[in-house]
């Protein structure tokens, strides 16, 4: 009498090592997992992990993804998940590469709006960018703030507090606003340098570390801030 074949568990057509690796990858969902962590979790030999990953890629069950925090480390994700913004860098990145062209276009539009208005708030700039529809995604107020902070650090514009007088008459006294950094156009109550330290406005502060890919030692904006004479 022949033995009855036991039904396969999980994804059919996979050997045990592939099941173990696929489960480890799926457990990380949209955050992906580094290949060394796969080895640590599964306790499988290097050659087994390498062979199994190749097989899973061929079967279109997993995919290799770029993690902007660890660009030199291979990360994998189950095919059904979309990489999180923490991995991809969000809408400012394309395939792990900063979309400088898009950012420059947005900066130019911000500058044009400020020249026309003389002084502008974050809300005003945000509404103008949405009206121009230069991006394929729904640009958020936080993303516009990132652009403006970058322009402040590059000395393209200055961040000031409204005095409620002159060009500021339509903006509540003390409200934060922006204008082109040149001559008399820069009049207003300038925000103190310590209040505008780049770390306080940086959207990547949560992943900044002394020895990380993003760190104070490699940050051009932090270096510029250190050179400011107070």
TrEMBL record:
<keyword id="KW-0804">Transcription</keyword>
<keyword id="KW-0240">DNA-directed RNA polymerase</keyword>
<protein>
    <recommendedName>
        <fullName>DNA-directed RNA polymerase III subunit RPC6</fullName>
    </recommendedName>
</protein>
<dbReference type="InterPro" id="IPR036388">
    <property type="entry name" value="WH-like_DNA-bd_sf"/>
</dbReference>
<comment type="similarity">
    <text>Belongs to the eukaryotic RPC34/RPC39 RNA polymerase subunit family.</text>
</comment>
<keyword id="KW-0539">Nucleus</keyword>
<dbReference type="GO" id="GO:0005737">
    <property type="term" value="C:cytoplasm"/>
</dbReference>
<dbReference type="InterPro" id="IPR036390">
    <property type="entry name" value="WH_DNA-bd_sf"/>
</dbReference>
<dbReference type="GO" id="GO:0005666">
    <property type="term" value="C:RNA polymerase III complex"/>
</dbReference>
<dbReference type="Pfam" id="PF05158">
    <property type="entry name" value="RNA_pol_Rpc34"/>
</dbReference>
<dbReference type="InterPro" id="IPR007832">
    <property type="entry name" value="RNA_pol_Rpc34"/>
</dbReference>
<dbReference type="GO" id="GO:0005654">
    <property type="term" value="C:nucleoplasm"/>
</dbReference>
<dbReference type="InterPro" id="IPR016049">
    <property type="entry name" value="RNA_pol_Rpc34-like"/>
</dbReference>
């Amino acid at each position: 009498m022949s033995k009855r074949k036991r039904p396969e568990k999980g994804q059919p057509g996979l050997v045990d090592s592939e099941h173990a690796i696929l489960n480890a990858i799926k457990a990380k969902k949209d955050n992906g997992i580094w290949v060394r962590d796969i080895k640590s979790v599964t306790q499988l030999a290097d050659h087994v992990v390498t062979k199994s990953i190749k097989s899973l890629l061929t079967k279109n069950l997993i995919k290799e993804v770029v993690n902007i925090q660890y660009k030199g480390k291979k990360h994998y994700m189950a095919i059904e998940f979309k990489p999180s913004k923490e991995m991809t860098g969000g809408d400012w990145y394309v395939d792990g590469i900063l979309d400088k062209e898009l950012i420059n276009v947005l900066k130019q539009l911000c500058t044009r709006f400020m020249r026309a208005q003389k002084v502008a708030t974050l809300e005003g700039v945000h509404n103008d960018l949405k009206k121009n529809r230069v991006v394929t995604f729904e640009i958020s107020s936080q993303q516009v703030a990132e652009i403006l902070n970058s322009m402040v650090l590059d000395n393209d514009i200055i961040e000031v507090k409204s005095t409620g007088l002159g060009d500021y008459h339509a903006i509540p006294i003390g409200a934060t606003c922006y204008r082109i950094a040149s001559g008399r156009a820069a009049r207003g109550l300038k925000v103190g340098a310590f209040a505008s330290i780049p770390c306080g406005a940086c959207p990547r502060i949560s992943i900044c570390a002394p020895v990380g890919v993003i760190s104070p030692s490699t940050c051009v904006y932090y270096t510029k801030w250190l050179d400011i004479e107070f």
